[in-house]
Inverse folding.
């Protein structure tokens, strides 16, 4: 079968990889308007896999989809690392949630919601002694926290690099770069390609906006910093009435600080205001961040439908997968796994 996947972002990449792993005999063309090193939304992302903390601030369904993805990542990432002789860190140390003394009312509200939604073995209140044992540097400013042990953070740069390598290794997968595809039909033909396809998957994220109803982009800005004086080993979320913030740790004292959430499709560079908000909230977490070096300030657009939920649309040979919003890493494995399962008669393919 010949398959075209338009968009080699997060969803397109995972789809190409999993289709190829789960079924032999596909000839896959993975097509993107940029080259393989372009830093699009999927690479700007903090790549946290946070089924519980995200469910509390979004919708309940987030938890079920996210837990399944978390388990799939645990299985899939070591397989990909072994196949490509690479190392893809999946930090599974969980998430700590804190708030400053003046924001304890918001912290309490968050905890009430969490208590109602999250099972007791997935979240616990921790005191200063436990916080000291988990993240000693956080006790400089915080004497209690919530701890969600079953959440993680993926090194998405390493994931993309390993996938590039995987695609190069597979004779039946062509990664076609710098090729923009705009007119998608449902009959398996693609402008510029002689042969037709059995399936065309539209995974263009924001690039598909002109073809989708009730679709919008939500701008997100992050800072990447190098903070040699800071040692925080797991994801941290700061509850704040105006500037909620998270830190997603990477290797060697590098941290991703995110993220703004602005209803806009403007992908121009990070504004002074957003930069100040992110960095001052960061500084309030630990003083060691004051000497951090700002490596990058980056912008990504989250592809989003009006209900903030992902959507798969089937139209003859054209299948559109979009609306991953702020949950690309949290939802994509489940969505792709279930999609392939559906396409192949509900066999259990995990
Ligand atoms: C600041 C920020 C932080 C985030 N943090 C997290 C997080 O911690 N956890 C989480 O789960 N999610 C997070 N996300 C969300 C996640 O990044 C997105 O949900 C995900 O990237 C969407 O994947 P996608 O493949 O649909 O789109 P993309 O990753 O944007 O990929 C779309 C691809 O299609 C290509 N394309 C577009 N138009 C065309 C065309 N006409 N022809 C050919 N190619 C085309 C693009 O070049 C791109 O490569 C974050 C997002 C942002 C912005």
């Amino acid at each position: 079968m010949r398959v075209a996947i338009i968009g080699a972002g997060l969803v397109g990449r995972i789809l190409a990889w999993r289709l190829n792993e789960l079924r032999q005999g596909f000839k896959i063309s993975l097509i993107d308007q940029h080259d393989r090193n372009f830093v699009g939304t999927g690479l700007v992302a903090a790549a946290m896999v946070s089924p519980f903390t995200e469910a509390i601030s979004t919708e309940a369904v987030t938890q079920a989809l996210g837990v399944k993805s978390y388990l799939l990542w645990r299985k899939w990432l070591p397989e990909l690392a072994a196949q490509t002789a690479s190392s893809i860190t999946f930090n599974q140390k969980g998430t700590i949630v804190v708030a400053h003394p003046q924001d304890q009312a918001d912290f309490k509200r968050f905890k009430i919601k969490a208590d109602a939604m999250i099972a007791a073995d997935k979240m616990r209140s921790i005191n200063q002694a436990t916080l000291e044992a988990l993240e000693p540097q956080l006790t400089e400013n915080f004497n209690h926290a919530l701890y969600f042990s079953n959440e993680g953070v993926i090194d998405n740069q390493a994931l993309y690099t390993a996938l590039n390598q995987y695609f190069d290794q597979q004779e039946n997968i062509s990664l076609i770069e710098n090729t923009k595809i705009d007119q998608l039909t449902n009959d398996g033909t693609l402008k510029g390609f002689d042969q037709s396809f059995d399936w065309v998957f539209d995974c263009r994220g924001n690039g598909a906006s002109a073809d989708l109803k009730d679709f919008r982009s939500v701008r997100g800005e992050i800072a990447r910093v190098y903070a040699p004086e800071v040692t925080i080993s797991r994801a941290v979320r700061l509850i704040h009435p105006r500037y909620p913030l998270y830190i997603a740790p990477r290797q060697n004292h590098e941290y991703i600080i995110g993220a703004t959430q602005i209803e806009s499709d403007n992908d121009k560079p990070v504004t002074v205001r957003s930069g100040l908000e992110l960095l001052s909230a960061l500084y309030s977490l630990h003083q060691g961040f004051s000497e951090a070096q700002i490596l990058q300030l980056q912008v990504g657009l989250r592809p989003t439908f009006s209900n903030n939920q992902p959507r798969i649309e089937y139209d003859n040979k054209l299948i559109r997968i979009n609306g991953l919003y702020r949950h690309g890493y949290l939802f994509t494995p489940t969505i792709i796994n279930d999609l392939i399962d559906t396409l192949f008669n509900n066999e259990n393919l995990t």
The chain has two domains: 2-79+155-213+306-343, 90-154+216-305. Residues 2-79+155-213+306-343 form a domain with the FAD/NAD(P)-binding domain fold (CATH 3.50.50.60). The mean pLDDT is 96. Residues 114 and 120 are 10 Å apart (CA to CA).
